[in-house]
Write a structure and sequence with these properties.
single chain, 138 residues, mainly beta, OB fold (Dihydrolipoamide Acetyltransferase, E2P), 2 domains, five-stranded antiparallel β-sheet, three-stranded antiparallel β-sheet, 1 helix, 38% strand, globular, binds zinc ion
Length: 138
């Protein structure tokens, strides 16, 4: 039986100039990172300046959505907006771009192994908001 809980928090940066395109990319099923024209490095999360060289000549690049499970936990106590328990994973993006945290869906704890391949999936949680989650990449 479902609850009335939203099971997400509205991102505070959804309309920031530096991150709006990222959230719009999720609506299109694209996971976007930033690439710096000055030093050619990619990074995530999106921000106004490159963390490698502080340059601000940046472009958006679409990632494959594939990653490696760095760690995970079962969350039993959460903000009141969430049903518990749920699985939360930390995923390393390829090429040392960064590490993301997201809910793991469609899997049970006994199926998870650190270092296993995972990928990003998408969930439309509101008519104006899509979020990313993690699924096992089989
Ligand atoms: Zn740079």
């Amino acid at each position: 039986m479902g609850t009335e809980k939203p099971n997400f928090l509205w991102p505070t940066n959804a309309n920031y100039a530096t991150t709006k395109e990222f959230w719009e990319g999720l609506r299109r099923r694209q996971f976007l990172a930033r690439k710096c024209h000055r030093c050619d490095e990619m990074f995530f999360p999106p921000r106004s300046h490159c963390p490698h060289c502080l340059g601000n000549d940046l472009e958006w690049v679409e990632l494959s959505g594939k990653g490696t499970l760095y760690s995970w936990t079962e969350v039993n106590i959460a903000a009141p907006e969430f049903d518990t328990p749920f699985l939360l994973g930390l995923v390393d993006l390829p090429q040392d771009i960064g590490r993301i945290a997201a809910k793991i869906v469609g899997a049970e704890a006994h199926q998870l192994r650190i270092g296993m391949p995972v990928k990003i999936s998408y969930a439309d949680v509101h008519k104006d908001l899509s979020l990313y989650c993690i699924i096992i990449d089989q």
